[in-house]
Amino acid sequence: MESASKSLKRVTLELGGNDAAIITKNIDVATIAPALAGVIFSHSSQVCLAIKRLYVHESIFEEFRDALVAAVKTFKLGEGVGEGENDPTVTIGPVQNEMQYERVKGFFNDIEKEGWKVAVGGKIDESPGYFINPTIIDRPKEDSRIVVEEPFGPILPILSWSDEDDVIARANNTRMGLGGSVWTTDLVEARRIAEQMEAGSVWVNSHMEVTPNYPFGGQKDSGIGYENGLGGVKAYCNVQTLYLKKK
Length: 247
Fold this sequence. Notes:
Elements: H1 2-5, E1 13-14, E2 19-23, H2 29-41, E3 51-57, H3 61-72, E4 81-82, E5 85-86, H4 98-114, E6 117-120, E7 135-138, H5 145-148, E8 155-161, H6 164-172, E9 176-177, E10 179-183, H7 187-194, E11 201-204, E12 216-217, E13 219-220, E14 223-224, E15 226-227, H8 229-234
Parallel strand pairs: 2-3, 2-10, 3-8, 7-8, 10-11
Antiparallel strand pairs: 1-14, 4-5, 6-7, 9-13, 12-15
Helix pairs in contact: 2-3
């Protein structure tokens, strides 16, 4: 922004997110948990819109956690290329750069220091690349670093909830406001929760699906301006008011 201000360039800023997904009791665990595992750890979770916090209703928490863990255990970590060809069996690739790799390692260092309970993963194997095993932290404290900050890497806190107003407040308790999602078969419940989430994009029964037809942007510290949709197009336009005096 400082650089752009010298010549009054217009800027659109996407500044990251700490997206929360709220899982209600009204879901099919066997279907949703494996699907969410793929969404959460896609690209080693290096996506601004990736789910960074997972809130699961207490009545299905253990069942959902175990199903999520089982899905993660099927993932294969690797380069994705071998002998000059793509390896279709690789599910998770490396973290993109050394700086981010070292940052994500900091969260793993906190596991023992903070006494976090690991549901799956929890260790970084020594390798010649920036590879990190997908990891799930079981119910860390709400004010812990893994919940408050955006790791931008394959480590996820999973938390439980029982009261709807409380979980909405917890989901909104962040400086970020890029995206969020609600998972339920009850569309009345879905709308009630979604409309209270403080995020630029909120999905119901999906996440991270962006279309050029609708605006994409964030609230709070997640950015300024929008891309896509009518609002995004208008950002590239100049407004002109034309006056005509008839007499």
